[in-house]
């Protein structure tokens, strides 16, 4: 989008971009850009906070009045107020196993993680249903599978037995990607039930560092990252685990 700004301005239309990755904006040098210190996917800041989001939009539009240039990159001065951890928030379930879940490469094997994943998805059913009632919506359903069926499908891959696609006209690896997306959404939606204003960092730390779901997805990535199937390799490296979470300690 930053690069497109130059072409649009050549037609006499003023542009301003909102940049989430500052180095990228510095390289592409859009005519005007407002860098915001928010996580990817939230260019206007926290959800359900229209006053804050309006402030971000107005700050961006004010760059159209600035005389600096020809390239202007300004910084938004406020952090996302939702990034402050809420001590009232607690994970939606107790761990179904007594110790922290094994992480990718710890030698516990895909079978152990497959069983732990299935057990955890079942345990999350009640808080997930509560979350859906509270919010009146869900983002789960991309794969067309129930959460339990998505967990069974992912578990089969973890056990080293890639199954046929459970979705007509969809390849097995694409079904795997969508099943993983559904499981991530399912766990996170279960985690936001209740009134605590948990931060996205709290939720991410819980999913990737404390749950069997996160550990299973990491292990799935490890198992398939060197796959001879180029499409499978692309999907597991690009879509299963966020880049920062794929690193040790992420």
Brief description of this entry?
By secondary structure, the chain is mostly helical. It has 2 domains: 2-82, no CATH class; 110-246, no CATH class. Helices cover 50% and strands 4% of the residues.
- The helical percent reads 40-55%
- Tell me what portion of residues adopts beta-strand conformation: under 5%
Distance between the termini: 28 Å
* Strands in their spatial order, largest beta sheet: 1-2-3
Jot down its keywords.
single chain; 250 residues; mainly alpha; 3 strands
Structure notes:
With 250 residues, this protein is mainly α. The protein folds into 2 domains: 2-82, no CATH class; 110-246, no CATH class. The protein has 11 helices and 3 strands, in the order αβαβαβαααααααα. The chain has helices spanning 2-10, 22-28, 50-62, 110-123, 125-135, 147-158, 172-191, 200-210, 212-224, 230-240, 243-246; strands spanning 17-19, 32-35, 72-75. The chain has a 3-stranded parallel beta sheet with strand order 1-2-3, with helices on one face. Helix 6 (147-158) packs across helix 9. The longest helix has 20 residues, at 172-191. The chain is globular and about 60 Å long. The two termini are 28 Å apart. 30% of the residues are buried. Residues 104-108 have low confidence and may be disordered.
